[in-house]
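Figure 3 (text version): structure tokens given as input.
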């Protein structure tokens, strides 16, 4: 967001303090700079660049709209903050088989907290509320509450409504493939059941965001925006 390497702006994670995650407030973030050039600016998905003050949030940094979560990890089905989910009410800790539980030992302390924000307020009523054990040893929820489904649909909605005479900057930060490893059964079943569970689940999540990205680019093509679009695809590390 600053155009600089995190170590060069002291954005390194040394503690659990939210302040340590902030990009320096005195630096102009990319969306703010692009707004000065006449762009509309939007983002969906994982933020994790600051949350201790409204000025550190996506909207505070210059995004006209945003939909997603501000912290590092959350349950994909319910949008519950992963490291604040009690073991009795969070899919990431409640529904995994015993042989996979060690991978999530860091989750499951504190109270149930929903981390899902729409621009300058909580996305009230949009988080998922139910989960169950699926066919492949992986917790499942409503397909329309899966985080990256919601983020892709929001991106497509904005693209469909966008005035194409105005340039647009869109930051899409999919939650896949971030822990906890969760994906719909139909995507898990694209891969052999002889694979180790975590490898199979991870591959399923990769296929999920591949399809979601394809749906977003299809929406751009339908609006005749694709030929004038620069797509940058990168990891967060």
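Below: residues designed for each position.
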């Amino acid at each position: 967001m600053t155009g600089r390497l995190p170590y060069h702006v002291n954005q390194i994670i040394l503690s659990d303090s939210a302040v340590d995650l902030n990009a320096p407030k005195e630096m102009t973030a990319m969306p703010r700079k692009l707004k000065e050039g006449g762009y509309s600016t939007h983002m969906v998905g994982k933020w994790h660049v600051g949350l201790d003050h409204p000025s550190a949030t996506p909207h505070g940094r210059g995004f006209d709209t945003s939909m997603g979560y501000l912290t590092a990890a959350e349950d994909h089905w319910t949008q519950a903050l992963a490291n604040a989910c009690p073991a009795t009410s969070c899919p990431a800790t409640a529904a995994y088989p015993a042989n996979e539980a060690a991978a999530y030992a860091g989750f499951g302390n504190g109270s149930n907290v929903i981390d899902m924000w729409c621009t300058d307020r909580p996305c009230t009523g949009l988080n998922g509320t139910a989960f169950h054990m699926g066919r492949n040893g992986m917790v499942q929820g409503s397909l329309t509450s899966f985080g990256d489904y919601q983020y892709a649909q929001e991106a497509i909605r904005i693209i469909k409504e966008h005035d194409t005479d105005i340039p647009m900057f869109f930051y899409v930060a999919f939650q896949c493939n971030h822990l906890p490893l969760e994906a719909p059964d139909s995507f898990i079943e694209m891969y052999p059941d002889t694979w180790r569970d975590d490898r199979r689940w991870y591959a399923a999540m990769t296929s999920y965001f591949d399809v979601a990205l394809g749906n977003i680019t299809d929406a751009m093509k339908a609006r005749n925006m694709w030929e004038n679009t620069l797509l940058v695809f990168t990891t967060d590390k």
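The first strand starts at residue 40 and ends at 46.
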